[in-house]
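Subject: sequence -> structure tokens, single chain

Hey, anyone have a minute? Need the predicted structure for the following. Not urgent.
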Amino acid sequence: MVDPDHALKANAPYTMPMGKSCSVHRHDSWVPMERHHVLPAALGGPSTKDNLITVCCNGHYAIHEFMRQLILTGGKVPWEQARHYGAKVREYATSGWEQSGSPTKAQAPVDSSD
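Reply:
Had a minute. Here:
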């Protein structure tokens, strides 16, 4: 099995890293992978091993979108919306939101992506 950390470092420019080791989804085949800052870099998150997870592109987008929902609702995302996100997506987004001081719409930066 290929080490996903190695795959993320060893690719040529313009080549999407591939892997199966997504922190939020289970994959049976290789998919594009990205690094996610649990506490987003735009909100002060460091690029350390403890703050970085490897996720598929869909998982990465979902975490950021759920964090956006947390910001817009002050942490009270209605279950009708939250149920569309997996448990791990909600967990990582909520952790990042809480670690950043639970920002509200007025306090959050324009772009909270990493």
